[in-house]
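Practice problem: predict the structure.
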Amino acid sequence: MDSEIFSILIVDDNPKNIQLLASILREERYRIAYATDGVRALKVLQERRQDMVLMDVMMPNMDGLTACRQMRQQAELADIPVIFLTARNDAESVEQGFAAGGVDYVTKPFSKVELLARIRTHLQLNDYRHHLERRVEALTSEVEQTQREVVFTMGAIAETRSKETGNHVKRVAEYSALMGELLGLSQAECALLRDASPMHDIGKVGIPDAVLHKPGRLTPEEWQIMMTHARLGYEMLQASHRPVMEAAATIALQHHEKWNGKGYPNGLAGEDIHLYGRIVALADVFDALGSDRCYKRAWPDEKIFTLLQEESGQQFQPQLVSLFFTHLDRFLAIREQFRDAFMYET
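Answer:
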């Protein structure tokens, strides 16, 4: 362990104690800062982060126990190890020191060798803990990225099987995240919407080709089969307890429900439909109508906009339709960004 990379704050109201500790630590090439009470210690820590605090207990203005408690209440200071270094050596004082958040308790007069050993141990432990936290964060990020890729790929497979394009799920994902932002959802929820919405039609993988690929109008019996894709998608996803899969299951089940209660599969109405389902319902219809396919041309924008306005309060939540038109330029920018290779001008 290279001592030069570690900074230690000495907190003691006795200048001689500070000088002694500073001399010992400098011999080991630690960087030193000091304060004479708890109030000054907190100020020093807020101005420049330290790797460890050697804290006296009995000091004016603010004692060491109170200072340590306040450190533990501040996120940016909570993980800094505090070693109490004090003349109070009774059992109750030691217990109070650990209860306040100290990692160790050394009594005066102290052994130089013992003190340096404890300092090295706790610096190493804290450094290793930070290393593990960074590693866990990296692994978590990798797992989450893999999960997003799997979700998107499964959604794209469903769209490809129904002869739609992979860019459809990209656009629906971006439209949904944007709508979440416009509604004031947190960044985390908007990201969840973006990650989960590509799975909205995953249930189509369970629909027979004769129905899914039929070029003409479906018979009533065939339409009943087609409508099962919502529940099929839910059943495929609902066993997972990961947030993105739970959200995807809800979206798969509810994105064909209608604000007026005339949708499927459960005939939910209004706010009984999950917000994610309401959002993806609008995003999906807007994109499906406005996208070219190898077998059909996209609707003109004017025709799409007329339908969305007519369906406000019927198929779609009025607030969502209003936000869509208020920020229409942003939705059209997404469509342009993820334009299909064979999309025609409308």
